[in-house]
Structure formats: structure tokens, C-alpha cells
Amino acid sequence: MLSIMKFFYIDENLSESGVKKIHAQGCANMPDMMNRRYLGPFNNSEEALRRISQQEPAAKICQECGK
């Protein structure tokens, strides 16, 4: 089965719980353009989290994008 890559972004603002959320393109909770940073194309949200976890140890996957 062919995997379709998605584009992922990280919210540059901390959430109320002190984390930065990772979102896939098209997420309803995506921050506006001025408050997000492009991470790149990945097969899934876990790959995006692994990539950014060294720079952003408080990063977590958005609940909607992690489904």
C-alpha cells in the first residue's frame, strides 16, 4: 500500500499546558500563518514529532491530527 505524505507544522505558541502542538495540513486547529513553522512532509504525525523533539522537547501531536 502506498503511503501519502502530509505536510506538518508546529504551533509557535505554547498551549495552556505548556506544549507546542504539531498539526497536519488541513487540521481544523491549525494556527494562522504567523504562528506556525513548517516542519516538512512526513508519513504520519509520529515521524514529525520524532524530527522536532530534539529542538522542541515540549512538542506534542494535536489530538485531531493524531487520530
Give your account of this protein's structure.
With 67 residues, this protein is mainly beta. It has one domain. Helices cover 12% and strands 31% of the residues. The protein contains one helix and four strands. Strands 3-1-2-4 form a four-stranded mixed β-sheet, with helices on one face. A hairpin with an 8-residue loop joins β1 and β2. The longest helix has 8 residues. The model has no long low-confidence stretch (mean pLDDT 91).
Summarize the structure.
This protein has 67 residues and is mainly β. It contains one helix and four strands.
Low-confidence stretches: none
Our Rg estimate from Cα atoms comes to 11 Å
Q: How many structural domains does the protein architecture include?
A: 1
Terminal Cα separation, in Å? 19 Å
Please provide the count of β strands. 4
User: Number of helical runs?
Assistant: 1
Strand composition percent: 25-35%
List SSEs in N-to-C order. Answer: EEEHE
Tell me roughly what share of residues is in helical segments: 10-25%
Net shape: globular
Strand order, largest beta sheet = 3-1-2-4
The major beta sheet can be summarized as: 4 strands, mixed
Q: What structural class should be given to the helix and strand makeup?
A: mainly beta
Mean of all residue-level pLDDT scores: 91
